[in-house]
Amino acid sequence: MSWYRPRNLLVAFAVMAIVAGGILVALPSLVSTEVIRARLVQEISNWTGYEVEARQPANISFFPVFSASMGDVTIRNPWQKEGPAFMQAERIDVELSLLSALMGDVEFTQTRVIRPRFVLDEPIKSLSEIGDALARSDGRIGDVMREARAAIEANPAKPDMSTVSSQPFGRVRLEDAMVTFKRPINGTEEQISSITGVFDWPQTSGVASFQGKAIWHGEETEIDSSATKAILLLAGGTSPLQINLSSTPLTLAFNGSANIAKDQFFEGTISLTSPSLRRTLEWSRMAEIPGAPIGSFTLDASVAGSGTRVKFDGMTATLNDNPAKGVIEVVLNRDAPSISGTLAFETLDLHSVFSGLMPLPNGSAESDRMIGTEFLKQLNLDLRVSTQKATAGSVNLSDVAATAQIRNGRAMFDIGDAAAFGGAVAASFQLADEGDGATIGEMRFNGTDVNSAPIIALLGLGNRFELGKGSVSLVLKGPLTRWSSVLADAKGTLSMRFGSGQIRSLDVERLLGKAKTERFYSLNEKTDALLAFDRLEIKANIADGVAALDAARMENKSGTFSFAGIVTLMSKSLALTGDFAAPVPAPEPPEGTPADAPKPEPALNHTRFFIGGSWDNPFISPIVSQ
């Protein structure tokens, strides 16, 4: 009987093969393409809650897997009868359960959406509307959504999800998708293209994730996101959420929770890295700011916000290799985003940072460029900065308190208090758009108890003066189109007051002697000469590129120098008249003069002269000597 069992097995296999072959032969007649198309449309509608229309009949394939394909598919918001559809796809392919199909049911295992075009009103708003649509739809997904909403209504803070059933959803693969949406604030239309990725949601009670890549504003971006309680998120509750974005301009990681209901919010931790903050701002279309580039930027912070407001708290950041701590808040207004906050740095390059917020000069090439003012209307800024040590070009500062503000067509960078030049300084620069292409600039600088040498060098007056400590005040205001034309167009005042010091190449005795014998001579002839003084005071009015001396006095033990005239600021040409008043020793009083008799006013001997030439090579020509 040993031959009997193998023979039975062979017979059984043969019968199974005949049955399977018969089923495969009969499948086209058992499974109607029209039935499959109708069931696919119904299932997709139950998936999304939206109305679905397929303009082409379904094509069924049995190898290598049982699948169906529909062409020219449209998905529309059921209560939005006009306007573009939510989605139009060239084709949707679905893999099906053969057994379920034979039983008259449709069960997806995987779905491919080929070249879909999504049109969103606003991303978060549209996602919330999908939740509303699902809650109104028929089928298993609709039932789950209604159960989840009931759990949220019963206990919004901590919904009991044990009362919510779980249903299979499946996997959706997008190929060459495009999303067109409007920015939440200003309604500007945006587009994300070449989206390829997988949305995976095995069970409605579990995690939903999307992994893929897309192109936004010309840059490829990789996306990896997941919502731990996706059904709760769609139903209007709060779900843990993770988002990771990676692109050339920006790398972002968010780990926290979110709610997309009417009072939408999110909170958690965020990490940002950008090789160029300017490039990131331009890429995100938040603002376009002229001036020198703002370099690398990193940020780690606790973040909380809504669709229009974000606050970064407990923030540690690095800007252009300058580490900082503080708080920043961003408000996405309709007209322009607003950024406010405080930052505390250990060290800071003020020029490199703030030249990215407003067009500060940096070298002769950049000084001749037109100063753009578009950013004055594209961004509102109120940033308060403090730093222990700072540099502004060649100037070293410490204990700096500064602000940068942009509002209502006006920008201001202000150092309210700082230690520099051995004393205390304050400075500000303002730029205002007056309309009709007119731009007004204003610059102020005040120094108190400062060392003169670096101040004189900063003002471009060379090294002829070796002064003591004193005070300096400079105010300039006027039309501003290029930095190179500031001195030619501005009006303002300059005042300086210093204590004891000396001036190179000026010998009083030689000056007095030459006054009797020569018409003019160069101050550079005797460079080793020094004129010491006890006090120097200069006041000048500036207009049309010329500084007119209003008062200029220099006092020493020998007498008092007074100056009047003009200095051209661009060419540094001189046209000054000078007067040296030396006291004449009083004669001895006659014998018998009472000791308490009033003493006569001392007589003065005046030497007048003219100073011409240039600041670097001045000439003196005596006028009168008596």
How would you describe this structure to a colleague?
The chain is an alpha+beta fold and 626 residues long. Helix content is 20%, strand content 50%. The chain has a 30-stranded mixed sheet that branches. A three-stranded antiparallel sheet has the order 22-25-27. Helix 4 crosses helix 5. Mean pLDDT is 82; it is low at 17-30.
Quick structural gist:
The chain has three domains: 25-179, no CATH class; 264-498, no CATH class; 509-530 and 549-587 and 599-625, no CATH class. Helices cover 20% and strands 50% of the residues.
Features:
3 domains, 33 strands, 30-stranded mixed beta sheet, 626 residues, three-stranded antiparallel beta sheet, alpha+beta
Number of strands: 33
Q: Provide the low-confidence segments as ranges.
A: 17-30
Overall structural class, as computed from helix and strand content, comes to alpha+beta
Helix content: 10-25%
**Main beta sheet, described?**
30 strands, mixed
| Averaged pLDDT | 82
Whole-Å distance between the termini?
153 Å
Strand content: over 45%
Q: Can you count the helices?
A: 13
Inertia-based shape: elongated
Radius of gyration: 40 Å
How do the strands and helices of this protein lay out in sequence?
Blueprint: H1 4-30, H2 33-48, E1 51-54, E2 59-61, E3 67-76, E4 87-96, H3 98-102, E5 108-119, H4 123-136, H5 139-154, E6 168-182, E7 189-203, E8 208-216, E9 219-227, H6 230-234, E10 238-246, E11 251-259, E12 265-274, H7 277-284, E13 297-305, E14 309-319, E15 322-332, E16 337-349, H8 350-354, H9 364-367, H10 375-378, E17 380-392, E18 395-407, E19 410-420, E20 423-435, E21 438-451, H11 452-458, E22 465-466, E23 469-479, H12 486-489, E24 491-498, E25 501-504, H13 508-517, E26 521-522, E27 530-533, E28 535-543, E29 546-555, E30 560-568, E31 574-584, E32 603-613, E33 618-625
Helix pairs in contact: 4-5
